[in-house]
Amino acid sequence: MRVAVLGLGYVGTVTAACLAAHGHDVWGVDVDTTKVRLITDGRSPVVEPGLDGLVAEGVRRHRLHATTSAVEALEGADISLLCVGTPSTTRGGTDLTYVRRAVEDVAAALMVVSPPSSGVHAVVVRSTVPPGTVDGVVAPMLVDLLDGSPLRVGTAMCPEFLREGSGISDFFHPPLVVAGTADARVARLVSELFAFLDDPVRVVDVRTAEALKYASNAFHATKISFANEMARLYRLLDVDARQVMELFCEDTVLNISSAYLRPGFAFGGSCLPKDLRSLLHLARVNSADLPLLAGTLASNTLAVNEVVDRIVAADARRLALLGLSFKTDTDDLRESPNVELAERLIGKGIDVRIYDPVVNPTRLVGANRQYVESRLPHLHRLLTPDPLSALDSADVAVVSTTDRDVVAALLACPSPRVIDLSGRLGPDVESLPGYEGVGW
Ligand SMILES: NC(=O)c1ccc[n+]([C@@H]2O[C@H](COP(=O)([O-])OP(=O)(O)OC[C@H]3O[C@@H](n4cnc5c(N)ncnc54)[C@H](O)[C@@H]3O)[C@@H](O)[C@H]2O)c1
Question: Which of 107, 198, 118 has the alpha carbon at shortest distance from 155?
Answer without folding.
Answer: 107
